[in-house]
Amino acid sequence: MVKGKVALVTGASSGIGAASARLLAEKGARIAALGRSQDELEAYVQTLTDAGHEAIPVVADISDEQQMQAAIQQIIDTWGRLDIVFANAGINGVWAPIEDLSADEWQKTLDINLTGTFYTVKYAYPHLKKQGGAIAVTASVNGTRIFSNTGATAYACSKAAQVAFVKMTAIEFAPHNVRINVICPGAIETEISDNTEQQGLDTIGMPVEFPKGKIPLTGKKPGTSEQVADLVYFLVSDASSHITGTEVWIDGAESLLQG
User: What is the dihedral of CA 209, 183, 16, 143, to 10 degrees?
Assistant: First the structure.
């Protein structure tokens, strides 16, 4: 259902992005793998091309408007079209009490997570609407169902705003047969948590114990990037042709317990 289509995946060299790009490639899509590290991207794209898939690396910072314009143009120059966008790149940023969170730390999180999504979709959309297409955006359970992770204010606000962005643009895009949906992952085995800077959270946290684990479906076992990739594939394929403007939580009911 995506064979021959051109798919842009941001944050493609690891985690959810890498798993999703690989699955889309296996289903026959041509992959534009976007990220900031040229070395990591080229190594990842090599794994796709070695497996017989068609893919190119696209080096760009999603929070830089000119770089994103150039990135989209690179894809069009290569394949002449764009059908699918997975706006996945993002950061956890700094988690800290409001009194300790700097304005620069706040702004960086919003620049990447929210403004980066805006640039990705804004410059891809003119090409998607030529023949119709599909967009998926990665948000989170934080800021959409879970509000107990104190200190994650900048991150949660950026993710809540992504959901609003998707709902607003869904109406705008629908007449051109462009669908847009948002996924809200819970605990997933990725590297993003390793890059989270936490400051002073012990002073504002509300201690709650979950003896059987925080994830009702699996206990303490988080989900996998491959499970999220399956959802992404569904949302950008014709299997979900009547779904747009919708958020989908993929968290093993974690957010229902912790919200």
Answer: -40
Fold category of 6-258 in CATH: Rossmann fold (3.40.50)
Other C-beta atoms within 10 Å of 77: how many? 9
Continuous H helices in the chain:
15-26, 38-50, 65-79, 103-110, 116-128, 153-173, 225-236, 254-258
Consecutive 10-residue averages of pLDDT for the chain (259 residues): 97 97 99 97 98 99 99 99 99 95 98 99 99 99 93 97 99 99 94 56 55 80 97 98 98 88
pLDDT tens track for 104-135: 999 999 999 999 999 999 999 999 999 999 99
Catalytic entry in 44, 119, 155, 233: 155
Domain ranges of the chain: 6-258
DSSP string, 193-237: GGG-EE-SGGGT------TT-SBTTTBT--B-HHHHHHHHHHHHS
Give me the amino acid identity at 131.
Q
3-state class of 174 per DSSP? helix
Structure tokens at 254: 């974690």
* pLDDT computed for residue 199 by the predictor: 56
- 154 alpha carbon, distance to own chain's centre: 16
Q: Is 155 a catalytic residue?
A: yes
In terms of Cα–Cα distance, which of 186, 60, 55, 56 is closest to 123?
60
